[in-house]
Amino acid sequence: MINVFFASTHSDWAEFGGALRSAFAAAGLDVNLTRDIDPALVDYIVYAPTGWLKDFTPFTRLKGVQSLWAGVEKIVGNETLQVPLARMVDSGLREGMVEYCVGHVLRYHLGMDRDVLRQNANWEVHVPPLARDRSVVILGLGALGTAVAQALSALNFSVTGWSRTQKEIDGVRCLAGDVGLEEALRAGEIVVLLLPQTSETDNVLNEERLAVLPRGACILNPGRGPLIDDDALLAALEDGHIAHATLDVFRVEPLPGDHPYWAHPHVTVTPHIASDTRPDSAARLVADNIRRSEAGKAMLHTVDRSLGY
Ligand code: NDP
Ligand code: OXD
C-alpha cells in the first residue's frame, strides 16, 4: 500500500480526490489517498501552494512531491523538502493557456476594445493588419510558452520566442540570453510573459526593457506578477509608450482593491484564471509519476532547484 497525502485545500480535495483515485486504479496502483495520516507513514505528497503545508520535516519516509501547479516558486526554495519535486505539466493547463493567450492576442490585434466600446453611430473604419504583419513575442518557451507560440504561428502571426537555452520551434524565431532578449523586445508589438518566477526573472520587464518595446506595444502577463516592475509599467502606460496591459497574476493576490491597476483605463485585470490544472488529465500525470518512482525511475517534470523552476 502506497500512502499519498493530499496537501491542498478543501475545494481542491473535492475537485481532485475522485480523479486521483480513478487514475491510481487505472495505473494499477494500490494507493491510500488521504488528508489525515501520520506524516511518518507518507510516501508521496500531492501539493498545492494554497494549502497549509510548509514544513516537510515530519514526512520522514517521503519519496516525492507532485505539485498540482505549474509554477513552483512557493515551494522550490523550501529547505525542509529534500526529495524530488515534480511540477504540473497537464494537457488541460496547456490548452487553457493557449485559449487565454490566443483570445487576448486576437483582442489586441483586431482592436476589439475599440469596436466594442465605439457603438456611437460613427461609421469609423479601422482595418487591422493581417496577423502575418503583427509581431508577437513570447517570453518563456517551456511547456506553455511553446504551445502558445505554435498556436499563434499557426494563425500566421510573426512569432518570436525567448528562453534561457536556445530552442528550435517550427515557425517561431527563437532567441536566448540577454542579447536575445533585447532583440526579441524590439519586435514586441504584443508581448506575452510565460516565464517562471525566479531570482533571474524578477522584474524582467523593468523600465529599461519596457523602453525597448515599440511605442504602443501591448502586454499580456499570465506568468507571474514579479516578472514586471509595476511602477515602471504604470509610468509607461501613463505616457502611452505601452498602450495596454492585460494582467492575470500579481505580486499580491488577490490584487488589493485600491491597487492602481484596477481603475486604470489601459489595464485589464483577470483574477489568476488564465489557465487551471484539470483534474482528469492532471491525475494521470500524478499516477504516472508515482508508478515511475515506485519502479525506481525519475518522476517526470522534476524541478531543478538550482534554477528555481
Ligand atoms: P516551463 O518550466 O516549462 O517553462 C519555463 C520557460 O521559461 C522555459 O522556456 C525556460 O527556459 C524559460 N526561462 C526560465 N528562466 C529563464 C531566464 N532566466 N531567462 C530566459 N528564459 C527563462 O514552465 P511552463 O511553461 O509550464 O509555465 C510557465 C509559467 O506559467 C509557470 O511557471 C507559472 O508561473 C505560469 N502559469 C500561470 C498560470 C495562470 O493561470 N496564470 C497557469 C500555469 C502556469 P528553458 O526552456 O531554456 O529552460
Ligand atoms: C500554476 C498556476 O502555476 O495556476 O499552475 O498559476
Give an account of the 3D structure.
The protein is of the alpha/beta class and 309 residues long. The protein has 2 domains: 107 residues, Rossmann fold (3-Layer(aba) Sandwich), CATH 3.40.50; 177 residues, Rossmann fold, CATH 3.40.50.720. Helices cover 32% and strands 17% of the residues. It contains 9 helices and 12 strands. A 7-stranded parallel β-sheet has the order 8-7-6-9-10-11-12, with helices on both faces. A 5-stranded parallel β-sheet has the order 2-1-3-4-5, with helices on one face. Strand 11, helix 8 and strand 12 form a beta-alpha-beta unit. The longest helix has 20 residues. The site of NADPH dihydro-nicotinamide-adenine-dinucleotide phosphate has 29 residues, from helix 4.
> What is the number of independent domains?
2
- What is the CATH architecture assignment of the largest domain? 3-Layer(aba) Sandwich
Helix tally? 9
Question: Can you list the ligands bound to this structure?
Answer: NADPH dihydro-nicotinamide-adenine-dinucleotide phosphate, oxalic acid
* Element pattern in H and E: EHEEEEHHEHEEHEHEHEHEH
Number of separate strands: 12
Indicate the topology.
Layout: E1 2-7, H1 10-26, E2 31-34, E3 44-47, E4 64-67, E5 85-86, H2 91-110, H3 112-117, E6 135-139, H4 143-154, E7 158-163, E8 172-176, H5 177-186, E9 190-193, H6 207-212, E10 217-221, H7 230-238, E11 242-247, H8 260-263, E12 267-269, H9 279-294
Helix pairs in contact: 1-9, 2-4
This protein binds NADPH dihydro-nicotinamide-adenine-dinucleotide phosphate and oxalic acid.
NADPH dihydro-nicotinamide-adenine-dinucleotide phosphate is lined by residues 70-71, 89, 93, 140-145, 163-165, 194-198, 200-201, 222-224, 248-249, 272, 274-275, 309.
